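Researcher: Sit down with what I've pasted below and flag anything odd:
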Amino acid sequence: MILVCTAGADAQITDKPPFWAYTYNPPDFKPPPDDGQPRHVPDSTASYTVPQTRNRFLAPDWHPGDHPAMPAVVASGRQPDVYACGFCHRASGTGGPENADIAGLPVAYFIQQMQDYRSGKRSTALPDRIPQAWMISLAKAANDDEIKAAAEYFAAIKPKKLVDVVETETVPKPTVAGWFFVTKNDEREPIGMRIIETPADVDRFANRDSRVRFIAYVPPGSVATGRGLAAKPEIACAACHGEKLTGTEVVPGIAGRSPTYIFRQLYEYRHGFRAGSESKPMIDVVKALNEADFLALAAYLATLER
């Protein structure tokens, strides 16, 4: 049995981090017990036990043909403090709504972000939220060689669009299980001012399969609104992120990414949690925007090809 907490449907524009974007487990959350059966995923001959899929020093490699050979820091990390990068972000760097898709990030950008985590220039609105707390802790414990190896590995992987955006007035009632939403019942509720992003196959996602797709439910009209915002001269996403918003040699792509992740980053730029050397252009852009704008931009960007 998965213990869950229900996400409220009455989210409002506020200066407090919205729960839908910063999901967290209730204090008494416990993952489903191990039934002793090996786990499998489609199109893979690999097999892992439940304890292996929950081992922070192991990146389950369901599809080794999808990526280069993993360096040690990605595959197994370094005990006791450097978790395997591929555990949270998956072997192919695809991550999930609770963290980040890091496939294809420019090497220099990746390294700079790790340095910013180390120095405190990059933080997060909820520092006790486990995905970000682990990331900050790992950045401080990893050495320069490990960071460089991870950066070069993930940069070599072509990013893929894995999110399907659905505009809707109502959404399957979401619950939280492992810092991300699941929608396993037929009950629906108004979407309100939220993005509800969930794995299309929760079991595969829990088993850390990097080929899992996601569904992002967004309010009606948000994609068109976001498209208009992205093209405004004072925002002009393409000026930095490239004509198709797929990034450059030094700037990350924002097309086709998790809209939950994009919203969190816009929110954190707006509220001073990202202050690294490359942050000023983003801070200048977001200071005149609000959470409704962030949501619309995130919804639109998620529809683009990578």
Q: What stands out?
A: The chain has twelve helices and seven strands. The domain at 50-155 is CATH 1.10.760.10 (Cytochrome Bc1 Complex; Chain D, domain 2). The chain has two domains: 50-155, 163-302.
